[in-house]
Structures are given as structure tokens and as C-alpha cells.
């Protein structure tokens, strides 16, 4: 095995462990499946615990570990909340009125399994429950300004100036001839980037970051988010179907304008690499060195190379 | 004119004034319609500012006025937030997968006007923006425990243990033969009641209510919510089409089991009256007498008699 292959294996193993840990935390906040409204709890759990790396809660926790207060008591609430927001966005994305997907990673999507009405409601329920969960941190940690800032940031980055905003422009752009680079950047920044920024910034805030450190983390997160998106676009062309979980070349067949359309395959690779390098430099400047976080970011940027 | 007719006219006039005031407050929190994601702001504003009495924000404000701190600085944020949650629930209720309604009070519903994908997203955006708006109160009033409690209560009463929970059971009950009274009470309590409880309890909390006063307000709100629902069911049978904004007798044609199915028309009237009387007694026990609130509650319970 090459040195890179050994390193990749180590990161993957470590990531699997963190994924299990994150899932353990998220599961603690799942509502009990009981009462007349039992079906909605089942649908929420189905959507939330469907296969995934739990990257957002992991990034949140690892960013907290870059600061002095490494395990703040509010952290688990926000780890669960951000995964709920990610999950709800997938449930609503898959609806017939949106992407109309019946399968996600080989499993029936939530509305395919529970019906369309329950798909709408399960998404609503997960979004609402995300805030219900994050707000619980006020009960024990209500005087902590970092908790206030984290709540405000979570709502902002998930909403029309964040993820939903990106989603709206993405949906509308399907009907627009001649997507320009600026509009595409906007979509990527908000649709993929905003929630990663929320995850990493909330981690930093709860860890005790000051204003300027928070800005550093936000910049790193924006670069990481964009690098992920570029990687996705590259993988759609060069990846193999089994790894990426959808048919190769689907973007081209759907005439979807991607990062590669503007930068070319080589240019896209170069940009993803330099974005990752800059993000790693940002992260290296934080008070505590977090080797796993650095390795994870580097690994995610070189997947399937 | 009879004495009752004069009194009704006075309350209606006063209510119209309060509605305009509440709309002025809500409008201040609307996002500016600009940027690539402009359409979603337009859809949110369309849904939020469509005709309505703004009962929830009005009840919130009037409940605050039953206590010593009559205009708490956090109040406007929560008034706007609760109306946003009410508006999102209507937008998603009207979707093809749910009630499939193209008209609401004679105007095209949000998805009929903006397309189904934008209907899903506008609902999501309003729910998220409700929390974004309410959370702003932490910036100026973050150390106030009443604000913390209000945020937690808002999320709880809007979610699976509140409004969404009721909605889920209502949707599922369409396919169930032999609805029982207990299940119907559950739906009413959550689907209609929970948000009215949130409105009135948040008003009370921000006004300075203590635990026992909060309980009194919650009990009053539950009774008022149920009385409203019973009135709706009665109006569906006895009302005229122009006033209620939908065809008379639609529940019966849809084989919908309502309060009247179990209690009969006279029984339903009696129950609505005694619930209202009890609620008024609850409200009369609060520190400050609020004549308008009492008159409003009584008026709403005798609409179209």
C-alpha cells in the first residue's frame, strides 16, 4: 500500500468512530415513538438516522476542540440540531414537487416510505424539533452569550440568508438559460456552505472563540464548503457509481451547470486543492492544534483521487 | 339595533384597529425583497400578509396587558414570530399532498400563485424565519428568563407535541373508520389549541406572570381554542357561505367527524358557551382587568349567533 492509502485508511477508520459517537449523541435527542402522533416520530427517526457520515455535527465538535473549552455543555444539543436541519432539508428536497427522488443511498426516501403528506410534515417536524432541541440549552446555559449567538447563527444560516436561500435560487435556476458564475457561486455558498459554516462556527463559539477567531473559522468553513461542492461536481464525472450512490454523468445528462462547466476538470481540481490548503492554514492558526480535523478536511478534499 | 348588535359592532371596530396595529408590527419584521432569492421573500410576504384577523399576535399582546409589565421589549418579536408559524402551517396545509386547496379566502394559495416547489420552500422559510425573528430578542433581552421560557414554549407548542402533532393525527384520521371522541379532542387540542396557548402564555410570560398565573392563562387558552374549534364546526352547518369563506356543509359532504357529530348541535353550542364562560372567569382573576380581551373572547364565541 502507498503512504496515501495507509493515511486514508486511518482517517476513514477514525471518521467511522466519530460518526458512531455523533449518532449516539443525536439518538439521545430523538423523540420517543409514542402517542397518537407516533407516525411522525417514526418518520423523523427514519429520516434522521438514515445512513450518513454526520459530517456537520462532527465538524462542530472538532471545531470546539480547537479552543480551550473543549466540551461545552451546550454542544450535544447543537450537534443534534444541525443534523436535524440537514435531514429535514433532504426530506423536503426529495419531495415530488422538488427533486422527486424515491431513493436515497439505496433506501426509499421518507415520503416514498411514509407517503407525501407525512414527508411534508416530517420535514416540518425535524426543522421545528431542531430549534426545540437547541433551545433546551437555554435551560442550563441560558446566561452564556455564546449560546445566544449560536442559536441566532443556526437560524440565520439555515434560513433565507443561508441554506433555504441557496435552495430557492437553485430551484429557480433550473428554468434559467445561461447561468452565470456569480449566481452559481451564490448557490454553492448558501446551499452547501451555509450549514457547514453554521456547524463550524457554533463549535468555535461554544469552544470560546473570540470575534476574530470566529471570523477565521467562518472563512475556513466557507472554503471547505466550496471545496466539497467542487469535489461532488468532479465525482459526478470521474467517480464510480457505487461510491457516489448515483449514476455517473447525471449532471451532464440533466444539462446541469456545475463548477466544472466554468473551470474545466483540471481547473476545478486545482481550485478545490487551493481552497483546502487555505482552509487548513486558517485552522492551523487556532489555539489548539486538532490533527483529526486537519486530516479529515484534507481527506474529504482528496476522496477518490 | 339590539344591545348585542351594538356591542358586536364596537368589538368588531376595536378588533379591526388591533388587527391593523398587529399588521404594522408584523410588517416591520418582513425580510426585504431583494437579492437572488427575492422570490422567496415575495412568497413569504404573500403568505404572511394575506387577509386575516391576526388573532394570535393580538391575543399575545392582550395577555401581556393583563400583567404589570404591559409592553415588554421582546413582545413584537414574538408577535411576528407566532403569526409566521400560523402562516407557514396554512401554506403547507394547502399543498397538493395535504388539503390541495387553490383558494384561501378567495385568493390563490401560495403554491397556486408561486408554484408547488416554492410553496414547500416558503413554508420552510416562514417557520425558520419565525425562530430567526423570535431569537433576535436574545440580543437585547438575553438575560430575561421569561424570554428563554417563551422561546422554548413557542418551539414546543408549534412542534410534534403541539400543532404539528395535531396536524399529523388529523391527516392520519382521514383513513380511519370510527374516529373516537378522545382522538378528536386530541386533534383539536393540538392542531388549533396549541398555538393559541403559545400566543397567550408567551404574552403572560413576557408580561411577568408567575407559575400559577401562567397555568391559569394556559387553561383559559385551551378552553378558548376548543370553543373556537366548536364554533367553526357549528358554522360549517349553520353559517352562510360568504361569512365563513367556504361552502356550507363541506364537513358533512366530506364525511368529516366533528365536535357536532358527538355532541349534537345544541350540545356543541352549550359546550362552547360554558368553555367561554370558564375562560372568562380565568382571565378575570389576572392582576389587571383587560376589558377588550374579555369582550373579544366573548365576541368570538358568539360569532354569527
UniProtKB/TrEMBL annotation, chains A, B:
Organism: Shuttleworthella satelles DSM 14600
Top-rank taxon: Bacteria
Annotated signal sequence range: none
Cross-referenced InterPro entries: Isoprenoid_synthase_dom_sf, Polyprenyl_synt, Polyprenyl_synt_CS, Prenyl_diphosphate_synthase
GO function terms (MF aspect): (2E,6E)-farnesyl diphosphate synthase activity; metal ion binding
This protein's UniProt keywords: Isoprene biosynthesis, Magnesium, Metal-binding, Transferase
Catalytic activity: isopentenyl diphosphate + (2E)-geranyl diphosphate = (2E,6E)-farnesyl diphosphate + diphosphate
One family name in Pfam for this protein: polyprenyl_synt
Gene Ontology biological-process entries: terpenoid biosynthetic process
Similarity comment: Belongs to the FPP/GGPP synthase family.
EC number: 2.5.1.10
UniProt protein name: Farnesyl diphosphate synthase
Required cofactor(s): Mg(2+)
One cellular component term from this protein's GO annotations in UniProt: cytoplasm
Amino acid at each position: 500500500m502507498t503512504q496515501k492509502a495507509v493515511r486514508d485508511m486511518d482517517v476513514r477508520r477514525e471518521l467511522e468512530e466519530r460518526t458512531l459517537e455523533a449518532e449516539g449523541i443525536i439518538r439521545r435527542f430523538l423523540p420517543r415513538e409514542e402517542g397518537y402522533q407516533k407516525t411522525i416520530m417514526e418518520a423523523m427517526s427514519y429520516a434522521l438516522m438514515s445512513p450518513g457520515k454526520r459530517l456537520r455535527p462532527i465538524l462542530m465538535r472538532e471545531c470546539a476542540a480547537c479552543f480551550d473549552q473543549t466540551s461545552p455543555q451546550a454542544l450535544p444539543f447543537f450537534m443534534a440540531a444541525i443534523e436535524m436541519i440537514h435531514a429535514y432539508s433532504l426530506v423536503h428536497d426529495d419531495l415530488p414537487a422538488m427533486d422527486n427522488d424515491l431513493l436515497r443511498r439505496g433506501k426509499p426516501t421518507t415520503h416514498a416510505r411514509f407517503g407525501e403528506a407525512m414527508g411534508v410534515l416530517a420535514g416540518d417536524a425535524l426543522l421545528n424539533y431542531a430549534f426545540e432541541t437547541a433551545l433546551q440549552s437555554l435551560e442550563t446555559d441560558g446566561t452564556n452569550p455564546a449560546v445566544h449567538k449560536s442559536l441566532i447563527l443556526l437560524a440565520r444560516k439555515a434560513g433565507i440568508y443561508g441554506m433555504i436561500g441557496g435552495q430557492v435560487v437553485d430551484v429557480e435556476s433550473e428554468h434559467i438559460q445561461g447561468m452565470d458564475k456569480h449566481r452559481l457561486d451564490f448557490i454553492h455558498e448558501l446551499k452547501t456552505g451555509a450549514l457547514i459554516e453554521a456547524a463550524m462556527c457554533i463549535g468555535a463559539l461554544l469552544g470560546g472563540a473570540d470575534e476574530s477567531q470566529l471570523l477565521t473559522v467562518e472563512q475556513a468553513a466557507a472554503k471547505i464548503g466550496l471545496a466539497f461542492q467542487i469535489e461532488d461536481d468532479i465525482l459526478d464525472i470521474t467517480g464510480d457509481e457505487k461510491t457516489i450512490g448515483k449514476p455517473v454523468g447525471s449532471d451532464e445528462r440533466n444539462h446541469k451547470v456545475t463548477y466544472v462547466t466554468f473551470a474545466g476538470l483540471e481547473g476545478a481540481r486545482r481550485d478545490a486543492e487551493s481552497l483546502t490548503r487555505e482552509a487548513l492554514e486558517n485552522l492551523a492558526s487556532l489555539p489548539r492544534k486538532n490533527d483529526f480535523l486537519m486530516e479529515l478536511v484534507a481527506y474529504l478534499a482528496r476522496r477518490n483521487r
